[in-house]
Amino acid sequence: MNTDFTLDHSYKSFPLTAAPCLASELPAKGWNLLANDLPFPLAVIRRSALEHNLAWMQAYAQRKGVALAPHGKTSMSPELFRRQLAAGAWGLTFATVYQVAVGVEAGARRIIIANQVVCDADLDGLSMLLARQTDLRVWFLVDSLAQLALLEDWASRRSATLPFDVLLEMGIAGQRTGCRTLEQALRLAQALAASPVVRFGGIECYEGVVTRCDSEHDAREVTALLRRVIEVVRVCDQQKLFAGEEVLVSAGGSAVFDLVLPLLRLQGLSRPVQGVLRSGCYITHDHGNYARFLLQLEKREGLTGSLRAALEVWAMVQSVPEPGLALLTCGRRDISYDIELPIPQHYAARGERQARAVPADWKIGALNDQHAYLRFDPAGLVPAVGDRVGLGISHPCTTFDKWRWLPLVEDDYAVTGAVSTRF
Residue 267: its pLDDT value, please? Predict the structure, then answer.
């Protein structure tokens, strides 16, 4: 598994005084986050939790009888893509053709673009990737006759002869993309089956737009969506509209992936179903949004433990200007804040090499571009200038995209590797 790349001081939080080095050379440096060997802030991935999550999610998919194609937009890290594929992932999922190219470079040969492709330049690029890599299969989403007409126009202007693999997307009224009704879906499916520029391979949906971390509500709403999708799959099968020897059906974000299993394990068709789960955030999980959703999943599944939070952003206390307020060297440029503010998890006093749990009263109240406002009870433990604070996150996607590299650390925060990102 090739995980090497060169680091230098053009990477945020790589030490300015350090000579450029390969990621594989990091263990020999003996760096430790809590020894202040690297500048703060710094996003890190705990290796033990990462490896646990890779194994747990792959085992879950295998146990449930579905394939796993993790959404690569979460990390956009070639090194993590390779780990996911090596762990047994069926393929990868992406949102754009640019992202597909990164996945192909990392070794993916089955890819779902969980999005519509409509731009000439993207269709040109996808066609080039497929021509260069003859064992590559890429499916993208179609949800309208207008999009199909666009594809046919592109193929005519380019004199293209290689058809694109496509999945029909079912959606939800008032939400994101996708066909809204059975009638609309069938008209499109019949047109896809008749078109020489595409191969109609199956059906896709995304359930995450209706979830709100309430098991009763989520199960009801997701089940309603799945019933509509299953009806479309069955009618398309009855009309013999699908191309190929199996029907590809795909769903599954990172919040309620257990609830889509009835679709992914659908039986009774004229040909086998390949169910593909697309969860992506499991790779590092989080301390907030997905952690809450996972507690609900664990209750539904009777699990006592599952994924572990692996991604943290560490910052230093730079000022304690008044009682009850400390400013940390971390802001919107460094950490997720789109779902909720960062969540303090650990601290290490200045000079200490051991991380401890933060007091329950420590909260992040606001973020600026480069500052986090840590609020605390002045009658309790008071952070001091030079202390380090480890922040948990909600929604890993929007922390990964703020870093070109993330060190891999052991449980004692020794740096033993790194991954890069390609946003």
Answer: 96
DSSP E strands, 55-192 = 67-68, 92-94, 110-116, 137-142, 164-170
Please give the sequence-ordered ranges of beta strands (E in DSSP) within 175-278, or none if there are none: 198-205, 247-251, 273-277
Q: Of 348, 354, 344, 358, which is closest to residue 391 (Cα–Cα)?
A: 344
Give me the pLDDT at residue 56, please: 98
Residue listed under structure tokens 């500048």: 39
CA distance 236 to 238: 5
The rounded distance, in Å, linking the Cα atoms of 420 and 105 is 14
Segments of the chain with pLDDT less than 50? 1
Tokens standing for 179?
């066909």
Please state the separation of Cα 66 from the chain's center in Å.
Answer: 18
CA distances from 230 to 18, 191, 208, 217 (A): 57, 19, 17, 20
Residue spans per domain, the chain: 6-46+308-420, 71-279
Predicted local confidence at residue 372, as pLDDT: 98
Query: Which 8-state DSSP code applies to residue 56?
Result: H
The residue type of 267 is: Q
Fold (topology level) of 71-279: TIM Barrel (3.20.20)
Q: Are strands 311-322 and 388-392 parallel, antiparallel or unpaired?
A: antiparallel
Q: Is 289 helix (H, G, I), strand (E, B) or coil?
A: helix
Q: What is the DSSP string of 272-285?
A: -EEEEE---GGGT-
User: Each residue of 351-363: pLDDT tens digit?
Assistant: 999 999 999 999 9
Residue 2 has a pLDDT of: 59
Which neighbouring-strand residues pair with 343?
Answer: 392
Rg (CA), the chain: 23
Q: Is 423 exposed, middle or buried (0-12, 13-18, 19+ CB in 10 A)?
A: middle
The per-residue pLDDT for 91 is 98
Burial 362-390 (b: 16+ CB within 10 A, else e): bebeebeebbbbbebeeeebebeeebbbb
The two three-digit tokens of residue 196, written as one number: 């020489």
Task: State phi, psi for 173 to the nearest 5 degrees.
Answer: -55, 135
| 6-46+308-420 against 71-279: fold identical | no
Task: Return the CATH superfamily for domain 6-46+308-420.
Answer: D-serine dehydratase-like domain (2.40.37.20)
